[in-house]
TrEMBL record:
Keywords: Monooxygenase, Oxidoreductase. Pfam families: FAD_binding_3 (PF01494). This is FAD-dependent monooxygenase. It comes from Dactylosporangium maewongense. The keyword Oxidoreductase applies. Residues 6-326 form the FAD-binding domain. GO terms for molecular function: monooxygenase activity. PANTHER family: MONOOXYGENASE, PUTATIVE (AFU_ORTHOLOGUE AFUA_6G14510)-RELATED. InterPro entries: FAD-bd, FAD-dep_Monooxygenase_BioMet, FAD/NAD-bd_sf.
Length: 380
């Protein structure tokens, strides 16, 4: 499609600013509307970006600025709570605070010429793609991009029957501790009662505990009880919790297991968590990939509907595969003691033989920004 088209991006989290930058790269006029006045800064938890997410950022010239805000660790290491090494892979990733990622992406979006309006929450879309906001203002555009996260409003505008996310049996709490951990690895320890994820950074060790629970937690977080969940485990988990001097907010993991049936309609499209909430792990990476692929399809396809169909055709298989992986990953963290014992016995074998190869689809993915995208005839 030609340059000079107008896009309205709803949501200024991860996917929103990346979509804005990618759309600016193809010459579109872009305004991002973000619900909160200022959700960026040193708030929230941390995320880690793998080679796939970083490669997608590189395609639109953002990789270096993002990587400079984080810590690159060369290894991914998995351990059991009994102290056994379950697996190790040279899968480098950059770990950074989500707030710093958002802050950096927004600055890059502004630099690219996009506008960002904060404190503007989408409530609905009327005739002629007229977006209506909670403050009473309205706006129109050729394309409305829903980068408005797991509880996306645009998802239900596109399809009023779209399913809603619900509690996925796991909550997380985390923080930063001065206690040192393995300096070279992003480490995941499957403990007897909860999973501990940790990453060393110059500011201290960032950690997140993932706690299985049939119902979401209520009341304030009990730090001592959280630490006690790791007392029976080998490794630094319990000490990390007890020595934490900077806490991140508790998060309840949500999922949409059946997926989102409809991603686009009449010049409106969803991406990132709005299209396929993943839970922790790869959600931000996929959000970045989506945004770049969407711009590529709009660049290379003559009309809107075909471009959005093309985007979905390219992204659906990958996000479906990732949703399956994320579901299995979550189940592994909420498994009972017997399943956990089997996992601890079998994982080292499978990890050594198959992990590098079988996870290549996840990390080696390329958005192919420089390649013209053409829709296969069967998809039109
Ligand atoms: C604890 C935790 C750890 C995680 N760790 C990782 C990790 O290590 N690696 C990884 O890849 N992913 C991780 N994720 C997942 C990742 O954070 C998400 O997948 C990613 O942020 C999705 O990006 P998004 O832009 O689609 O949505 P979001 O980042 O949620 O952004 C949505 C934005 O839209 C705004 N918004 C919402 N509704 C409206 C509205 N009506 N109008 C206007 N604006 C609106 C919100 O305020 C927000 O700014 C983690 C998630 C959690 C909870």
């Amino acid at each position: 499609m030609e340059a000079g088209m107008e896009a309205m991006v709803i949501g200024g989290g991860v996917a929103g600013p990346v979509a804005a930058i990618a759309l600016r790269r193809i010459g579109w006029d872009v305004t991002v509307h973000e619900a909160y006045a200022d959700p960026a800064g040193d708030v929230g938890s941390f995320v880690s970006l793998g080679d796939n997410g970083l490669r997608a950022l590189d395609a639109i010239g953002c990789r270096d600025a993002v990587a400079a805000r984080g810590t690159r660790l060369p290894l991914l290491r998995l351990r059991s709570g009994r102290g056994k090494l379950l697996g190790e892979a040279a899968r480098g990733r950059v770990t950074l605070m989500r707030g710093h990622l958002v802050e950096t992406l927004r600055a890059l979006a502004l630099e690219s010429g996009a506008r960002i309006v904060t404190g503007r929450r989408l409530t609905g879309v009327g005739h002629g793609r007229t977006a209506v906001f909670a403050d009473g203002t309205t706006a129109t555009a050729d394309l409305i991009v829903g980068a408005d996260g797991i509880h996306s409003r645009l998802r239900t505008v596109i399809d009023p029957a779209a399913p809603a996310a619900h509690y996925a049996g796991l909550w997380t709490a985390g923080g930063r501790s001065p206690h040192p951990v393995d300096p070279d690895a992003f480490t995941i320890t499957f403990g007897a009662r909860a999973t501990m994820v940790c990453a060393p950074t110059p500011a201290g060790t960032l950690w997140a505990a993932q706690v299985p629970s049939p119902a979401p937690p209520t009341g304030p977080l009990d730090h001592a009880a959280l630490a006690a969940l790791f007392d029976a485990d080998h490794g630094p988990a319990a000490t990390l919790v007890r020595t934490t001097d900077h806490w991140h907010p508790r998060t309840v993991m949500q999922a949409l297991p059946a997926g989102v049936p409809r991603w686009h309609r009449d010049g409106m499209v969803v991406l990132g968590d709005a299209a396929h909430p993943m839970g922790a792990g790869q959600g931000a990476n996929l959000a970045v990939e989506d945004a770049v692929v969407l711009a590529r399809c709009l660049r290379d396809t003559p009309d809107m509907d075909t471009a959005l169909t093309h985007y979905e055709t390219l992204r659906r298989p990958r996000t479906t595969q990732m949703l399956k992986f994320a579901g299995a990953n979550r189940d592994a963290k909420i498994s009972g003691p017997v399943t956990a014992r089997i996992r601890d016995l079998t994982m080292p074998f499978f990890f050594r033989r198959f992990a590098a190869k079988s996870s290549a689809w996840m990390h080696d993915y390329d958005v192919e920004w420089n390649k013209a995208s053409t829709l296969p005839p069967s998809s039109t």
